[in-house]
Amino acid sequence: MYTFNLQNILIFSLLLHFVLSSTKSDYAGVLEEIFQTNKYNKKVLPQEDSDEPLEVHISFQLFGINEIDEVLEKMVTTGYLVVSWNDLGLAWDPSNHNQVENVFVPQDDVWKPDVFLQNGFKKLVELGTPSYYISVDYDGWMTWFPFEVFETRCSLDTTYFPFDEQKCNVSIVIWSHTLNEIIFVDDDDAIIFNELFQQNSVWDVISISYHIYEDSTEPKITYTIKLKRKPLYYIFNILLPVEFLGFLNGLVFVIPADTGEKMGFSMTVFLSLAVFLTSISEVLPVNSVNVSVLGVYLLLQVIIGVCVLITSALQLRLNARSTSHPVTGMYLRIVQMKSKCCGRTVKERHVQMR
């Protein structure tokens, strides 16, 4: 009796694999059966029952946040969708084609949902290009992977800039069909951080959620990306310098009037604050609804700088005034107001000087 050893088993397995391996003609036979024998029509919606809408499974794989443009209120992300549905018009029997169970066909050769980015920053363009292929299983299960650099509108609330959190949406819609014909179905992995996901240097992705609209006229799903700004850059380049300039604003009253540097020092601090206010305005959106707290603080610092300039000018005027000329009532009132703010009256100061 013949005994099977390990070597014979391996040789038999290799021979069996070689015999059963699918060839180019097998794949060509599958395509010929689908498109020529069965006369597949890509213009027909692949509904099994006209009373039941076609279920389209969709998920979103995110590669990374490329950019958040605060001025244009635009978010740029990189990723792709995984769109799946069942089309029995593309089914075949693998036993008739040497166990061919899967083929790839150009996306323009078969029916596919016309998926659009609804809140795109540019004109409305269908996702996918003719160079993309769709995976087709023998039971008619279709899987499409449209890759895209998504440019979407994002309304930003910069009230607490640079410690703000934002929510930006990526809205996907099937444009030419209603909910009676097609519905979106979420999978367990409806949102996936791809293994190649790259962190952004300015923004952290806190979470991603999605919502399928059941009350709209067309199939629609919205992915909401919650972002948090990394404030370290703005702390070192804006917040700390502004705080130091605000401190220097008060030091102008320490400089003696006879030195001649009092006005120049005040003007330098004022112009520095004005430059920071301008730089902040350039990175924030033109928005009259939400005003940045930091912008308001800088504006107050500029107003204080103006008051310091006016006070310094009056001090220099009084210092250069001849002693033979009497002090006018306006200057007396200013000195009295300043003395009251400091907790003393002019009379008390006069007695102490004696």
Characterize the structure shown:
It is a multi-pass membrane protein. The chain crosses the membrane at residues 232-255, 267-286, 292-314. This protein has 7 helices and 11 strands. The protein has 354 residues and is an alpha+beta fold. It folds into 2 domains: 21-230, Distorted Sandwich (Acetylcholine Binding Protein, Chain: A); 233-343, Neurotransmitter-gated ion-channel transmembrane domain (Methane Monooxygenase Hydroxylase, Chain G, domain 1), CATH 1.20.58.390. The longest helix has 28 residues, at 293-320. The radius of gyration is 36 Å and the shape is rod-shaped. The protein starts with 5 loop residues before the first helix and ends with a helix.
What would you say about this model in short?
With 354 residues, the protein is an alpha+beta fold. It is built from 7 helices and 11 strands.
Fold blueprint:
Layout: H1 6-20, H2 24-37, E1 54-69, E2 74-86, E3 102-106, E4 115-117, E5 133-137, E6 141-144, E7 147-153, E8 165-174, E9 182-198, E10 203-213, E11 220-229, H3 232-250, H4 262-283, H5 293-320, H6 329-341, H7 346-353
Helix pairs in contact: 3-4, 3-5, 4-5
